[in-house]
Amino acid sequence: MLVIDGSYGEGGGQVVRTALAMSTVLQKPFRLENIRAGRSKPGLSHQHLSCVELMKRLTDARVVGDTLRSTELFFEPKKTPSGEVEIDIGTAGSVSLLIQCVVPTLHVASELKIVAVGGTDVKWAPPIDYLKHVTKPVLSQFGIEFDLDLIKRGYYPKGGGKISLTTRDLTLNSKSIDCKKPQKIKGVSHCGNLPRHIAIRQAQTATKKLKKIGLPTEIEIETCDVLGKGSGIVVWSQNGCRYAGSSLGKPGKPAEKVGEEAAIELIKQIKTEGDIDKYCADQLIPTLSLAGGNYTTTEITMHTKTNAWLVNQFNEKNKIKIHENQKPPKITTQTPTNPKK
Fold this sequence. Notes:
single chain, 341 residues, alpha/beta, Translation Initiation Factor IF3, UDP-n-acetylglucosamine1-carboxyvinyl-transferase, Chain, Dihydrodipicolinate Reductase, domain 2, 4 domains, four-stranded mixed beta sheet, 9 helices
């Protein structure tokens, strides 16, 4: 049985999520030790337990250690994913991170419908609009197609956001991503239970800043009813390479600052170059391992290195290789001469 050191590399919750996905696709049980050992609150949080619960219900898995703050987890899937599941994280835990567990498994799944309740726009996690407008279109190049609907936004600390993911039969295919420079920028600036002018000011500042790169920019304004209050903005490139920038509002932070941060992040990604941005490069690692292919990225992060190390523990037939010194950095797959059986 595969034993994984959860403290390796970045050593965060990503190790849990990727392990669950790879185990499910390859039907390999694993034991994860030292979960989040270097964190101020080690072990499994509510967010991670929701991921375990989701995959347990989809695969009828045998699980040991799925308790709050547990530093060890055993997971053994009994079947490939299928069915309908509704899961409430119970906090403002990210629904986007929850979805990351299941997306790499969709090509082996039967028809799925997943409804998740939690945070859609929260710190330390990709905003739901990033998944819809950056990750999802890139995944489609590998044959991963699914519908992702935002039903209600949820901000920190109350959460209460709701999304729905549905899928159908699909076929995974290898892909060497090679894209052209983006030709357009789109975005969404949103606020919940706050004056509309906050979302407008976020968008106006971002638009002004983005004029520096000379691309047509269109940012949608959205106001919504939510639990508590919150705001944020996501801007992304289209008609070419997919990059994004995002920022969240908080008490005392001017709306102009929120818009400026998102624009600066996107500009940096575009100027750096690469087929996809550093966040998407990380998120695609499990799919790349399973499908084969390659892509360049704007930056290799510790998250990406950790994810690559982890999928290589599971998949002996397709190894991820990171060419960090290449400009731009490139991530590829290669088949070992004598893979383990």
